[in-house]
TrEMBL record:
The keyword Transcription applies. It comes from Cellulomonas uda. Pfam families: LacI (PF00356), Peripla_BP_3 (PF13377). SUPFAM superfamilies: lambda repressor-like DNA-binding domains, Periplasmic binding protein-like I. GO terms for molecular function: DNA-binding transcription factor activity; transcription cis-regulatory region binding. PANTHER family: LACI-RELATED TRANSCRIPTIONAL REPRESSOR, LACTOSE OPERON REPRESSOR. Keywords: DNA-binding, Transcription, Transcription regulation. This is LacI family transcriptional regulator. Residues 3-59 form the HTH lacI-type domain.
Length: 326
């Protein structure tokens, strides 16, 4: 059962008003040192913590930033982004609550319950949600997976990743390409955009339509995909959705006795730590996660304090890290 200020007042033998004055360090009120000490000692003994909602009402703003994640898989990059945003905002006295959107509970229920000063979304919010939060005095900052014309929205264009992969493979002489897509439906929003970039780049460079196959993170699944890609006119280059899928393809290539990159070139995405430890080390598309996270954190701070300048969008968001797999 939650300890309230009324409990502290009863145990201290003083009024709730006095407890409020002491716990909120109200200025201009005469309270003896003995009374102040008794109230603080009682609050500590009972384990009293102030209500976040009440604190927000008193100060006019809470110190909580609600970070809303879509129903995505949580991996090294998302972990890194959340950690960086949390650290950056903490340095400015703000705490971050991370919520993964699963189920049908309305977002309204959540932000009304936790009274955040700002809500940060990694996808654009529904118009009615954004409008309701703004009317409630909550700052709204969001991001997008495509180029977004709204100047306040930070876009991370996923199609550009697929284009980089194709351009890299084409520069190394590969004309018949395959795409190893993720099998997890929660990643479809990313995968569809990256595949569209792969297809657009193939068309622009005069390459055949890429052969797209879902690959689970098993040697068996990757081997089946590889057998299909090598039938008829063999694909000699594979663009994988991310490094984990690419590692499955490398394992399948080894299992089938193919040489990488002589028989098959493979490029991933994310530059996770194990990519450089693969056999051979994996070529990949590096993402500026720290810079993206810092932009989002600074965008929240600028939205909360109009006197702060808005952050500058990072220029180098993606680039290819070339290793032996291509």
């Amino acid at each position: 059962m939650r300890v309230t200020s009324a409990d502290v007042a009863r145990e201290s033998g003083v009024s709730r008003t006095t407890v409020s004055y002491v716990l909120n360090a109200k200025q201009g009120v005469v309270i003896t040192d003995a009374t102040r000490k008794r109230v603080l000692d009682t609050a500590a003994r009972l384990g009293y913590t102030p209500s976040a909602a009440a604190r927000a009402l008193r100060s006019g703003r809470s110190d909580l930033v609600l970070c809303v994640l879509p129903d995505w898989t949580v991996g090294p990059l998302l972990d890194s982004l959340i950690d960086h945003v949390t650290t950056s905002l903490h340095e400015h006295g703000l705490s971050v609550l991370v919520h993964i959107s699963r189920g049908s509970r309305p977002l309204t229920d959540l932000w009304r319950a936790v009274t955040p000063c700002a809500v940060l979304g990694l996808l654009p919010f529904a118009e009615q949600d954004a409008r309701a939060m703004t009317r409630a005095g909550i700052v709204v900052v969001d991001a997008a997976l495509d180029e977004d014309p709204h100047p306040q929205t930070f876009s991370v264009p996923q199609a550009a990743i697929g284009q980089l992969q194709v351009e890299h493979l084409a520069q190394r002489g590969h004309r018949v390409l395959a795409y190893a897509a993720p099998a997890d439906a929660r990643l479809s929003a990313f995968a569809e955009r990256r595949i569209s970039g792969v297809r657009a780049a193939c068309a622009r460079l005069g390459l055949p339509e890429p052969r797209v196959t879902e690959v689970e993170l098993t040697v068996g699944s990757a081997s089946a995909a590889l057998a299909a890609w090598r039938a008829d006119e063999p694909a000699t280059g594979v663009a994988a959705y991310n490094d984990e899928v690419a590692l499955a393809v490398l394992a399948a290539a080894h299992d089938q006795g193919l040489l990488v990159p002589q028989d098959l070139a493979v490029i991933g995405v994310d530059d996770i730590p194990v990519a450089r430890l693969a056999t051979p080390p994996l070529t990949t598309v590096w993402q500026a996660i720290d810079a993206q996270a810092e932009y989002l954190a600074q965008a929240v701070l600028a939205a909360l304090d109009p006197a702060r300048p808005r952050p500058t969008r990072p220029d180098d968001v993606f680039h290819v890290v070339t290793r032996a797999s291509t």
